[in-house]
Amino acid sequence: MSTIEDCLFCRIVAGEIPVTMVAETEHTVAFRDINPQADVHVLVVPRIHEPDIGSLATADPDVTIALLAEARRIADDEAGGQYRLVFNTGAEAGQTVFHAHAHVLGGDIHVPLPG
Ligand code: AMP
Ligand code: ZN
User: Helix and strand tally (H, E) in the chain?
Assistant: First the structure.
């Protein structure tokens, strides 16, 4: 498993930084965003380090599918299956943590829809 020592989400996956944990699976860790933008705002993070979702999809399709399935399961649990998935990719698009992650947003969402 690849990890990067000074990566925030690798450190969370390793249990070195406390979070409000939602669920852990073989391939993913899910926890509440520290700065929620919706009633439900959960981050689903692969255990392996890849810098963004596209890189993860190329490097490990199985983990990518596991991440998507876990996002759905959490949204089913917490938001009646009604949810928005956000994958910011690149600093100019708002990515601040360069370890792939899905934002699962549900309930009252405080960020506008694109378009
Ligand atoms: P992004 O801007 O798409 O890279 O998303 C990174 C997200 O990580 C932001 O929504 C932050 O609020 C969230 N975040 C940063 N540090 C923590 C932390 N220690 N625990 C939980 N969420 C965090
Ligand atoms: Zn990482």
Answer: 3, 5
Q: Which CATH number is 8-109 given?
A: 3.30.428.10
Cα dihedral 107→21→102→50 (10° resolution): 170
The minimum-distance atom of ligand 1 relative to the CA of 94 is 2
Overall pTM surpassing 0.85 (yes/no): yes
Q: Which residue, among 110, 97, 108, has the nearest Cα to 19 in the 3D structure?
A: 97
Which member of 41, 101, 103, 110 is catalytic?
A: 101
Q: What is the DSSP-derived secondary structure letter of residue 91?
A: G
pLDDT digits (tens, 9 = 90+) for 23-39: 999 999 999 999 999 99
